[in-house]
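Q: Given only this backbone (413 positions), what sequence would you predict?
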């Protein structure tokens, strides 16, 4: 066994065991606190709702534990088990030329990965979410979504893969810089295309109707000096009962999107506070900062791949017999997350810092108590646990636990 194979196996074992250990802690912590609503929430959240959140969290985390093991095994089958090599040799035997072979391998691998993930997605949608009353997806809608995603993979994915492989062949030693420019351009294109072209394929967006709520929203936008291309309501209830609000786009093309489920459960002052929080992300340039960070991470990753692609042990150590650009790219995408797993807490910490900043902005621009009421309602309606394991939360959570967030808001009052 090569040294690199050993490093891969040890790292995969450590990440999988860490995922299982953190999940186990989380389940135990939630179970311990299942029968008592935390003091700070006792007036607002019933014991029944608290227990439902505990059971929903436990069911999701238990399933994630199973998936951690399944994902690890599948990765072993793809790499050392020879799955990727088998697929590569099958395409090679057709003698289509390097570009077509590479594109065919990548697209077929993504399709196989998608098909293998299907049972898990079906279980999550029609069993897990269904059991807790969140699922609104019908079998017909599920199939329609799947077909649309397939068309998108072919229409957007194939030209992108083809161009990337062409640059890898033609752009010389610094191909990774060329591919990085392509990837960055593609990311910016998607930031424009997602809200305007792609999201409307899956959901209906209607401008927020005239009335007291629109007036409230417009006043908040004027007060905080934000320009936007409109406030939209999305039919999130087509797929789930979970509520949300988000911002998309750049500069003057910003759009504000409310899920219809959110508008149904929150009052005007609470929606205003949630929107003020989202505006806080814009005020502090969190979105731009995240995109710049993504660009930097992809540049570093591609530079690393530029070196790995010339190392014979990178292929042989991961079960691929014939080195090629497309095999290197696919191996990197499959195996990279195993090695970058331990960056997760760093990313989560950065994200939580941004959430506190956005909350502080909301506290200045809107009613703090409305913000707290909105948070409690969102936790209750989404059956999110109020008592996460502190270590699990620190490792994964992009948002601070409810108790800390509310304590922070109260300290600003
Ligand atoms: Zn936020």
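A: Predicted residues:
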């Amino acid at each position: 066994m090569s040294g690199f194979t050993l490093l891969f196996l040890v790292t995969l074992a450590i990440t999988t065991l860490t995922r299982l250990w953190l999940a186990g802690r989380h389940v135990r912590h939630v179970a311990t606190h299942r029968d008592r609503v935390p003091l700070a929430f006792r007036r607002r959240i019933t014991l029944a709702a608290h227990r439902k959140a505990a059971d929903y969290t436990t069911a999701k985390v238990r399933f994630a534990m199973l998936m951690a093991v399944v994902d690890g095994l599948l990765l072993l089958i793809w790499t050392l088990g020879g799955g990727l090599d088998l697929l590569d040799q099958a395409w090679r035997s057709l003698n289509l030329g390097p570009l077509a072979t590479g594109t065919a391998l990548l697209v077929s691998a993504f399709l196989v990965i998608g098909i293998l993930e299907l049972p898990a997605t079906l279980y999550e949608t029609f069993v897990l979410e269904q059991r807790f009353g969140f699922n609104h997806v019908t079998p017909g809608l599920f199939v329609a979504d799947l077909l649309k995603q397939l068309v998108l993979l072919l229409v957007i994915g194939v030209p992108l893969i083809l161009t990337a492989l062409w640059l890898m062949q033609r752009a010389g030693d610094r191909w990774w810089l060329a591919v990085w420019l392509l990837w960055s351009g593609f990311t910016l294109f998607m930031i424009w295309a997602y809200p305007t072209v792609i999201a409307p394929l899956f959901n209906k967006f209607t401008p927020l109707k005239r009335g007291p709520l629109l007036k409230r929203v417009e006043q908040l936008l004027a007060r905080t000096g934000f320009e936007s291309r409109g406030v939209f309501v999305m039919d999130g209830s087509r797929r789930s009962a979970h509520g949300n609000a988000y911002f998309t786009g750049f500069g003057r093309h910003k759009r504000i999107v409310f899920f219809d489920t959110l508008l149904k459960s929150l009052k005007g002052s609470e929606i205003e506070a949630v929107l003020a929080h989202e505006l806080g992300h814009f005020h502090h340039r969190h979105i731009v900062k995240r995109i710049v960070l993504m660009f930097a991470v992809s540049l570093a990753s591609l530079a690393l791949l530029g070196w790995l692609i010339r190392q014979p042990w990178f292929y042989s150590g991961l079960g691929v017999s014939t080195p090629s650009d497309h095999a290197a790219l696919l191996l990197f995408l499959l195996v990279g997350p195993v090695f970058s797993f331990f960056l997760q807490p760093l990313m989560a910490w950065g994200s939580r810092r941004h959430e506190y900043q956005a909350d502080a902005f909301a506290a200045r621009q809107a009613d703090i108590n409305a913000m707290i009421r909105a948070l409690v309602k969102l936790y209750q309606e989404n059956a999110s646990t109020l008592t996460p394991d502190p270590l699990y939360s620190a490792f994964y959570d992009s948002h601070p636990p409810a108790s800390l967030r509310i304590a922070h808001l109260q300290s600003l009052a």
